[in-house]
Amino acid sequence: MADTQPTGMAIAPDVLDTIVALALNDVEGVASVGTSPSKIRSLFGKHNKHGVTVDQVSDNTINVSVVLTVFDGYSLNKIASDARVAIADAILSQTGYTVDRVDIHVDAILFQD
After folding, report:
1. DSSP label of 4
2. DSSP string, 83-102
3. What is the pTM of this model?
């Protein structure tokens, strides 16, 4: 994605990726953001290594897609719901963008001993 430009400034795509990743640090059940390099399908095809894709829909609206590894024992619906809220709130408060859609892709489940 090219730099996004809310009124009067430009935001580099890596900044938005970082905002999303940091927002997910406090979401219970999220183990990591991004596609694990050990996954065979990540070796083929086109994947964002950070696991975050941001698309600008309009001047002040964006869509976010994020790939997660989650811990076993947590509700996937709750993780996705909490992640959507955390991402939308973080993006809005730090950039002024409204998040129209957040797509959550669970790439792996991490089983704990």
Report:
1. B
2. HHHHHHHHHHHHH-PEEEEE
3. 0.81
